[in-house]
Amino acid sequence: MPADAPSTSGSAASVAALKDVPTEPGAPKPDPIVVADNITRQFGGLKAVDVDHVEIQRGVITALIGPNGAGKTTFFNLLTGFDKPDTGEWSFNGQTLKNVAPHKIARRGMVRTFQLTKVLSKLTVLENMRLGATGQRGEGFLAAPLRMLWSGQEQSNTERARELLSRFKLDAKEDEFAGSLSGGQRKLLEMARALMVSPELVMLDEPMAGVNPALKQSLLGHVKSLREDGMTVLFVEHDMDMVRDISDWVIVMAQGRVIAEGPPSSIMADQRVIDAYLGAHHDTDISELEDVLASEGHGGITAEIGEDK
Ligand SMILES: Nc1ncnc2c1ncn2[C@@H]1O[C@H](COP(=O)(O)OP(=O)(O)OP(=O)(O)O)[C@@H](O)[C@H]1O
Fold first, then answer.
1. Domains (ranges, CATH) in the chain?
2. Biased-composition ranges for Polar residues (predicted)?
């Protein structure tokens, strides 16, 4: 279903409410689940994040895009408590998240996916799911006795893990090492693991990276189903097909700042966005943007870069 088409789900009202939101950086949303103000993060002489104001609409799929080094991952880390901003305030469901530990943020319902690391690869699929139930204390928590981790809540956690594995068609793999999964299956496991805490907001870090084209459609279906189930989705992605296909709203960052916001169709034609990608190194397939340039009589992105030299 094209992103702009009316949704038939319970999220339809949230999606429809975006129609009247102005397409400008920091635009207020009718029902924001996250509100962030004056968030900055400096690394040495570099201001990696410098966001004046941003709101994430509840119940919709928002894409966070921008060229390499724009500050997207750092901003994700700041919102979810895995890094501390130098300045700023942000709230989730109206409650401040400043100085709240990441696992507590996850338990409040705001959770991010993590790429499957070496350590997690050596655990089975089911063990990875059980770790998700801890609210992502991080790998350091693995040092604690696993017995402690699995006590008490073990049975209900295992039941929930199995339900989710079945939903993501990974149930046959529960005893296999996570490291043996294909790229696409890993992404499904990352998503399933995040759902262990029954979140309201799921933040996906490059869900399409390393996924073979045949699995992409199925993965897109799973992301859309999160929205159909009433969850809010915020994802960082370089794959413009995914951005165009499933996002209801797009926020663009460049050099730490939010430079544009809007529905995917208008964002892909936004001159500020095209300029940001042209002026920076990027991993994004910007053929969509290139088409826009070509239709406006430019020589295409390669030619544009050539002219700049
Ligand atoms: N821990 C760190 N120490 C020093 N510099 C950092 C650190 N983390 C990020 N940076 C720098 O901050 C800037 C923003 O990086 P970030 O990873 O947030 O960008 P991004 O938009 O996610 O990029 P990409 O799309 O390439 O993943 C980059 O210049 C990066 O080199």
1. 12-308 (3.40.50.300)
2. 1-12
